[in-house]
Write a structure and sequence with these properties.
Largest sheet: 5 strands, mixed
Mean pLDDT: 86
Radius of gyration: 12 Å
Low-confidence stretches: none
Order of helices and strands: HEEEEHHEH
Distance between the termini: 10 Å
Strand order of the largest sheet: 3-2-1-4-5
Number of strands: 5
Length: 106
Amino acid sequence: MTDSVSINDIAFKIQENINGVDQVLPDGIILLDLKNIGSLLIDLSRRKVSLTDDQSSADAVVRLSLPTLLALKSGSLTPATGVMTQKIKVHGDLELLACLKRLMSP
């Protein structure tokens, strides 16, 4: 992923990774809010990713910038460090943040 990546590219990659996971995913809905780009609703129990502006059904809301997302994906930033440095803001179920990192893996 590069800085010219679109929200659709991110959605496609997450959906591809969800489809490739053999293990049971935790039940929950994550709203991934990428500053100035858009928001994705990731429904882990249905294994579905969609573009959205509605966060009312989310169990966890994760707000971060694209550079922070790319740092998570590359492994140069851990979820814990991102939260502690306030590069990642999470409301709701923190366990889902670890699942999100797994779904961002190459």
